[in-house]
């Protein structure tokens, strides 16, 4: 007896294997199809393999039925702009992907198009990181620029204190060369204290390539190394290499820590005091001193001269981009020193012609006597020499470069990352030729004298570096 489904007779197994459902009225119900397959007309028992093949054929037939029903669906009605919806009703004509609206104006849920495909949604535009150097011309592509290096990208051996110093350098919280030098070697002191020589190695062979160099590379990536840092690191490596391979670790570490303390005391603290004392002795009562921006050696010199009881006044021409001269003016006025302040280089000639001496601070002095200093320093020095005014540079010998020379402002410089746009950019330093410098005051001078800029090599040879021994 044949099984019944919805009142219709179900064909036998043989007919089900050959016949395929056609048209939208075919029954897609899997349960019904399986029920009919399980009611054979003959008494022959099917094997499991035959049952599996039959079920597979029925599944393929159902898929073909659904596909055929989509292809044979009636086209959209064109009567008065009405289109057939998915239920045979009529709605207002809308493009695929748009919401249809009812008579009440309420939006209906989105329905797929007649083809059954979802409308393509454009992908959101990808975020492209802007290259900060994209606006720099090719002729300036060699000039480096400070940048913040994510701590996650730093070498695994970089000490946490060095990571902090690098971030401060990249953001110019540590700006001038001596501040960067001092912070760097205080961080190196922490590195040495936490260092342990691996088994089978010696400090003199392992420390520099495997511990010290990763710290230096990270700091250099954050901001190009200043000349004082380069000189001091060269001395530190020389000190490490002089240790005997059999030197005990505790003894070597103690020697390095004492050496760093001596470097900071002699080449930074004592040098600043000696330079300020020597430069203050060269000043006379009634002098008018002109300076550019704010440099710590010039500031300490003026304060020392005031403590010595000398009467003088100061003219400050400020760097319009940094504004450090304003802070210097406030400091000098608090101790009673008369100050005239100019916010920029405008009207430079008459201001320079009215002073007695020009005191300038520098970041470095090259072997040919040229001065590496903040941008604008060269303008002040040239105007002063043209007016017949002495230009005195204050600089520590740790900032002297005995190996390199410089004749322009492009060979050794940096691009200001805060003032770098697609239209223009600014260089942090300029180069002042030695002919515009009257003399240089260092920590090795005495009696208020100073050496000409060209005599830097002779001065360094005469005063051998005690830290190398």
From TrEMBL:
Entry annotated with the keyword Protein biosynthesis? yes
A GO molecular function for this record? translation initiation factor activity
Q: Where is the composition biased (Basic and acidic residues)?
A: 55-70
Which portions of the sequence form the region Disordered? 1-130
> What are the annotated GO cellular component locations?
cytosol
Compositional bias of kind Polar residues: 35-45
**Keywords (A to Z) from UniProt:** Cytoplasm, Initiation factor, Protein biosynthesis
Q: Where in the cell is it found?
A: Cytoplasm, Cytosol
A Pfam family (short name) is IF-2B
Instruction: Write out the biased-composition intervals (Low complexity).
Output: 18-33, 96-106
Q: What is its main location?
A: cytoplasm
**Do you know which InterPro entries this protein is assigned to?**
IF-2B-related, IF_2B-like_C, NagB/RpiA_transferase-like
Give the quaternary structure. Answer: Component of the translation initiation factor 2B (eIF2B) complex which is a heterodecamer of two sets of five different subunits: alpha, beta, gamma, delta and epsilon. Subunits alpha, beta and delta comprise a regulatory subcomplex and subunits epsilon and gamma comprise a catalytic subcomplex. Within the complex, the hexameric regulatory complex resides at the center, with the two heterodimeric catalytic subcomplexes bound on opposite sides.
Q: Identify this protein by name.
A: Translation initiation factor eIF2B subunit delta
Protein's organism = Staphylotrichum tortipilum
